Predict the 3D structure of the following.
Amino acid sequence: MIIACFDGMTENIFNNIIEYLPNHQVLLNDSNYKHSILYNENLPHTVPSWIQIFSGKTYKDTGIYDFEKRNRDGSRLNEYVKRKDLQGIEFIWDKSNQNRFIVYNLWICIPPLRINCHYPLIWTQWDVLKKNGEEFIFELCSEINSYKWCIDTLLKMRCEVLIWHCLFPDQIHHAFSYEEKYNKPISDKFIKAYKAVDFLLGKMIKQNDDVVIVSDHGDCGAAFEEIGLVEPICAHNRDGFIASNFLSELPSNHSEMYLMFEKYLMKEKIKRRN
Ligand SMILES: [Zn+2]
């Protein structure tokens, strides 16, 4: 099973430029795929959302609200969540034989979490929210070949479950949300950035495997007053996205998503025993 995590992927946003995105079109129109909103019933921030999807635990259970740690009163600590902060949480790969999994760059800590995966970290910068659209698109396009190489290699490795995370859609929304918010004519840069995401999506859906494409939250395109010039406010909303070529029924929220994974792994275990 391939679980391709496209952070912040939002149907309302990619639908605006769907004619440029052949692989996104497959998710919406191909009869092999079902798609739907995946509702974020807890906190539409990246870190607690993925933690809930892969462990069943909410931010209330873990005390982890975002990339940045906070005091009990909500004030910022200026310290990021590290891998050691996740130690008390039992993830789906801890509950099963860990050899069955590869987890590639899941952004639930900094640097992002990886299990059974020793490829170089492609995205080394953590200042994307301070970049403007121009700088961001330059960096994204220059990284795309390394991503391509990385996906090809990961897919060749034998594992039962590949969990692969891509932060690009969320980053694009933060970098270009001025256009989304004010309905300005969509720029060539925004389209170019999304085409890069579409290319990576194509890599995933062209595999002869069970595929789930999933996002942690949606985006309402209001992160910045001006592109990259002021502090971001939360642009996320609760309407994430899910598509799959094998699930007979799609989960509708994060708790159901976790239960679906558990069920799938249990079923595979039984299949192997027989
Ligand atoms: Zn996110």
Notes: Confidence is low (pLDDT under 50) at residues 223-233. The helical segments are 11-14, 22-29, 46-55, 59-62, 133-156, 168-182, 188-205, 254-273.
